[in-house]
Amino acid sequence: MVFQYLNNRPLDEARSQYIALLQAQGLAPRAQTIPVPAAAGRMTARAVYAHICAPHYPACAMDGIAVRAADTFGASDTTPVSLSPEQYTLVDTGDPLPDGRDAVIMVEEVVFTQGEAVIRQAAAPWQHVRQIGEDICAGEMLLPGHTPISPAAIGAMLAAGVLEVEVLAKPVVGIIPTGDEVVPPAADPKPGDVMEFNSAIFSAMLEQWGASPRVYPIVPDREDAIRAALEGALEECDMVLVNAGSSAGREDYAAAVIGQVGEVFCHGLAIQPGKPAILGRRGAKPILGVPGYPVSGIIVMEQLLRPLVDLCLGRGAGQPELAQAVLSRRVVSSLKYREFVRVRLGQVGGRLVAAPLARGSGVVSSFMKADGILEIPQGSEGLEVGTQVQVRLLRPARELERTLVAIGSHDPLLDELADLLHQADPDAFMSSSHVGSMGGLMAIRRRETHMAGCHLLNEADGTYNTAILEKQFPQGGVYQVECVGRTQGLMVAPGNPLGITGFGDIARPGIRYVNRQKGSGTRILADYLCRKEGVDPAKVYGYDREEFTHTAVAAQIAGGTADAGMGILSAARIYGLDFLPVCVEQYDLIIPDYAWDTPMVRRVLDILAGPEFRARLEQLGGYTLDRPGRVRRVY
Amino acid sequence: MVFQYLNNRPLDEARSQYIALLQAQGLAPRAQTIPVPAAAGRMTARAVYAHICAPHYPACAMDGIAVRAADTFGASDTTPVSLSPEQYTLVDTGDPLPDGRDAVIMVEEVVFTQGEAVIRQAAAPWQHVRQIGEDICAGEMLLPGHTPISPAAIGAMLAAGVLEVEVLAKPVVGIIPTGDEVVPPAADPKPGDVMEFNSAIFSAMLEQWGASPRVYPIVPDREDAIRAALEGALEECDMVLVNAGSSAGREDYAAAVIGQVGEVFCHGLAIQPGKPAILGRRGAKPILGVPGYPVSGIIVMEQLLRPLVDLCLGRGAGQPELAQAVLSRRVVSSLKYREFVRVRLGQVGGRLVAAPLARGSGVVSSFMKADGILEIPQGSEGLEVGTQVQVRLLRPARELERTLVAIGSHDPLLDELADLLHQADPDAFMSSSHVGSMGGLMAIRRRETHMAGCHLLNEADGTYNTAILEKQFPQGGVYQVECVGRTQGLMVAPGNPLGITGFGDIARPGIRYVNRQKGSGTRILADYLCRKEGVDPAKVYGYDREEFTHTAVAAQIAGGTADAGMGILSAARIYGLDFLPVCVEQYDLIIPDYAWDTPMVRRVLDILAGPEFRARLEQLGGYTLDRPGRVRRVY
After folding, report:
1. Closest residue of B to A620, CA-based?
2. What are the structural domains, with CATH classification, of chain A?
């Protein structure tokens, strides 16, 4: 096995040198001429001037009569003036002003008697006449170069006789997916099939930026095949991406191939995710080696390809929308890299709170959920909880203000609640993070959430939530709102092939358990059951294998990498697992004072009590409802 | 002539009742199923759930060897562990974890000796393994309903085995242009031809909003023809616009026809522009009668059609981006109407300044130039200069911060300057308003502009600008920056058919003069020439006919509605007019202290002194350059 070492070039330096190199080679915007009606949203290639005036003739601005103003002088209520048919012309709005006339009188102000037009007020010269060029004068600059064309600008150009316009051509960006294991997206892929959805993500990003993506067929991991594909794409495109194979493993050919058809300027950046990026070129055409993990790929696209697209479309870098936020969890970072952390954002109690999302490079859902990006500079070991940070917004700030934040215990019903909330009010959004019941209560104490799902058993008396709320909120300040009863139990493979009879069996040799994370209500329940049933957690294979949601536990069992795990009935049902019920627990929503009187919380309480929510829960299964939305207790 | 009276319904009331009526009739979003890769930017029709987990198998997260963690326990630097070929499997990133293995060791941490893999650190169970569902779990809600689909969401759906998605269908909006005088856009239209560019504007707006426009051929002003077109469009579209004929003139058939094929809910709104709008329907299909003037049409589209499109696309009304600004000119408004005033905005001296643009309904260029909309409520007679107003932004606030404001005397060179500035820095913009030299100096005194073009003659000594600056700025605070010398003269028709020999001739009977507005340097020059040449302005036909730019004066002469007017050589050249030179005057840029040290002003001074600016002026003609950009004097 050959092992190559990558560079660790700082991003800013590598990027600016790379762009300068490409510009020196001739990378620049290209112009094309298109019909004006098709030009909305495109960028002008150069300044656009009016060909003709608008209006291009003196036009009547009212329905009425065109006259010579001098003929009307002296007209008043007491001295009306009668105009003979030779002295006036009936006109409609938009008609050309007839020769010899220099004013228009509105039809409402004229009385017609026996062919004469009687008026009681003199007309001022040029009244109700749209002068030539009132709107636009021939020769006038309508739009400067490198300016986006708005709908109104389309109208202005057409009005000014400009029927075609030179715009900047959309750069054509070729995307070459590579990899032996890579297959087109499928509803039912085989183990080991890596679905090629990066090109769909990249294409959508490119379209959003105004470029024109061209996706090539998947190329196997063979140097000659990749080279042939790259050479072909370079003939047809302005820029080319080779997706994956950009790292330094035994089947990573991208760097070698780029070096053969052109030149590698830099391989390896001091960024995380995205470090194995390749910055290459042939002549002025950029060739990027983009890492295979989608999150790495997205970062490389944004940081390296977007500036090149902007350059070709005559756009400045612009200023990203930034906001100050408070970090809700500690983030550890490597000194070696500048790190891009996806965060969820919520406006809670007057502050913007940033909650870091899962950071794995493969976690494409983290980008789907992200409201912003937090950058941790190279040379920093990370940031402590509570730090004031600057985040780049991915959603409009005004949307964040209308987003209900739910941090706490996971239950699929929260997603249904989010859907129903947005359905009820399209301007309202809900974002939920799963940190377990205890994590949710901590988030309330730190004023980082509007509500928290919670199901914490008090072992002493078998009640839920009450005891812990009293302890956690000795000064009060929270409402305990009834939500659902839900059935917890042991999930096992369909047909229960290992004959598991109850929780006590999880320590049996040959049984692979999968657990929930510490602090989650379900973990606390499992710990309690261990004590009750005399199970030694240290003897349970997989007791320290932690998943963060009920469905993730179910997924391991369904996938055959675990045999048993605690979870709720609805999760077992999704995966068709067998289920050994253990208890019905109480799942409440804990809502702090500071969020209680907000319209969003009010609406959620209404939804909880409504028939649609009940129907959704019946669909999920395993829930009982008593009086959802009722305040159980105020602390 | 039949004269119909229109309603004057308040907009908010009419709109909400109209929408409620349409919803009661069944107007609602429609769903359609499309392939996920084509769904970027579309709205989900309902919640989308994951079909499969991502990853869908336990995957190796590193290139290296897959092992059973238990086989590695005890490995350390001092007690390395050798794994036999049966105990490890070579794996690449993305490979499925082989059966019986539960951990991956990175290739960098393995030494291979005679087929054995030697490791010096124990592997933790599940290390470097991407668990099933690490990213997404089957059954998990990926996106709520009525949510825009981002590029990352496309990736997440495909990763989760979701290959097709139900999205909200783009509402199809038919546009029927009507009018006998209406012709398709042409480079050289005849007098009286009204070019039909509204459908291009409306189409571009609809595309921007996510709807699907369908433009029908122009229909003549005949009731039966319009009815046939409307009936046809209603078969094919979700909504239909009848453009023009919505007023109450003798050829306005829209209301009658809408009443015949369906129902008119309201004809006439208390808004300006846009009052003759018709709100009609057939069943749940909206039919709008849209006024013919483009500005009225744009307002009606935004205020009435956009909410209907939003409704069909499951979008909330959102919050418009608002900003506080200081009004730079008095705006008079009618008590009867809620008025939408287009404004230019500039960030000057720490305040946002709103300058009202031309308000004619036909002035489509005002929408092209507008940075914001100022609403004046019904029942208000207008707003005084200096009033704090709230404006709805049409451009991002951050762009406004980087916009150089030039208010003052008009010269086409300012547009060239704007083009060169934006070319030099794509993040810099320039917006210029033409209010004459005196208006520019007033704008500086009110801290409303970063610079002002100025050419004010001091009759006493024939110098320019110096005397008036001393008078206007007794405390100083402005820089007088040299720009150009330019040739002023009398513009006359090509070949000078009336044999005009000089300024003194403008009072001759049969000569129609066209003037510039009071306060402009050119008007002051004309007034001076009148005195000098003994011309009585009251005897000059058209001396009170005021245009706001050199090109507008030239356009009147070229169009044959005037015979002579003062202006600069470059304007005469654009229109091919004859030109009788009168003087070479000095055109300076006056720049206040408070703008002097800004990067944008610095850049403009650089551009003034550069060869590109000189080349542009040579193109325009009639300019002399001495040392443009030099500070003549500081006051």
Report:
1. B139
2. 11-28+171-312 (3.40.980.10), 31-55+134-168 (3.90.105.10), 59-130 (2.170.190.11), 322-401 (2.40.340.10), 436-634 (3.40.190.290)
Which of the residues in chain B have pLDDT under 50? Answer: 1-3
Token pair 């915007």 is found at A29
Q: What share of chain A is helix, strand, coil (3-state, %, to 5)?
A: 30, 30, 40
> Low-confidence residues of chain A, pLDDT below 70?
1-5, 248-251
Inform me whether the C-beta atom of residue A201 falls under 8 Å from chain B C-beta atoms: yes
Instruction: Spell out which residues of chain A touch residue B151, defining contact as CB-CB under 8 Å.
Output: 200-205, 208, 298
Q: Are A484 and A618 in contact (CB under 8 A)?
A: no
A323 vs A390: CA distance, rounded Å? 6
Identify the CA nearest to B411 among candidates B529, B567, B632: B567
Q: Look at B47 and A250 and tell me if their CB atoms are within 8 Å.
A: no
- Could you report the per-residue pLDDT of A247-274, keeping only the tens digit for each? 766 668 899 999 999 999 999 999 999 9
Check if B538 contacts A (Cβ < 8 Å).
no
The CA distance from A621 to A569, in Å, is 7
What is the rounded CA–CA span in Å between residue A344 and residue B132? 23
Contacts of B628 (CB under 8 A, 6+ apart): B482, B483, B484, B608, B609, B613, B614
Candidates B53, B368, B412; nearest CB to A152: B368
Query: What's the confidence (pLDDT) of residue B382?
Result: 92
Range list of H helices, B463-534: 466-472, 521-533
What is the helix, strand, coil percentage profile of chain B, to 5?
A: 30, 30, 40
What ipTM does this complex have? Answer: 0.93
* Among candidate residues A107, A77, A115, A299, the one with its CA nearest the CA of residue A201: A299
- Phi then psi for B184, rounded to 5 degrees? -65, 155
Q: What is the per-residue DSSP string for B235-286?
A: HH-SEEEEES--SSSTT--HHHHHHHHSEEEEE-BSEES-TT-EEEEETTEE
Q: How far apart are CA A295 and CA A181, in angstroms?
A: 19
Query: Which chain B residue's Cα is nearest to A363?
Result: B135
- CA distance, residue A220 to nearest chain B CA (Å): 15
pTM of the model: 0.93
Interface check for A249 against chain B (CB to CB < 8 A): the answer is yes
> Which residue type occupies A595?
A
pLDDT tens digits, residue range B499-528?
Answer: 999 999 999 999 999 999 998 999 999 999
Nearest one of B234, B229, B235, B237 to B212, comparing CA atoms: B237
- CA neighbor of A272 nearest in space, from A361, A209, A145: A361
The number of beta carbons lying within 10 Å of the beta carbon of residue B388 is 12
Rounded to a whole number of angstroms, the distance from the CA of A462 to the nearest CA of chain B is: 30
Strand partners for A492 = A564, A578
Q: How many Å separate Cα A569 from the centre of its chain?
A: 32
Task: Give pLDDT, residue B250.
Answer: 65
Please list the alpha-helical segments (H only) found in A112-243.
151-159, 198-209, 223-236
Six token digits for residue A480: 């305990």
Instruction: Judge contact between B192 and B181, C-beta under 8 A.
Output: yes
Q: In terms of DSSP bridges, do strands A631-634 and B141-143 run parallel, antiparallel, or are they unpaired?
A: unpaired
C-alpha dihedral sign at A574, A577, A578, A579? negative
Helices (H), A388-483: 397-401, 412-424, 436-445, 466-472
What residue type is B342 in one-letter code? R
Question: Which residues in B lie closer than 8 A to residue A187 (C-beta atoms)?
Answer: 51-52, 161-163
Tokens found for residue A151:
């709908």
Which residues touch A297 (CB under 8 Å, ≥6 apart)?
A: A198, A201, A202, A243, A274, A290, A291
For B494-532, b where at least 16 C-beta lie within 10 A, e where not — what string? eebeeebeebebbbbeebbbbbbbebbbbbbbbbebbee
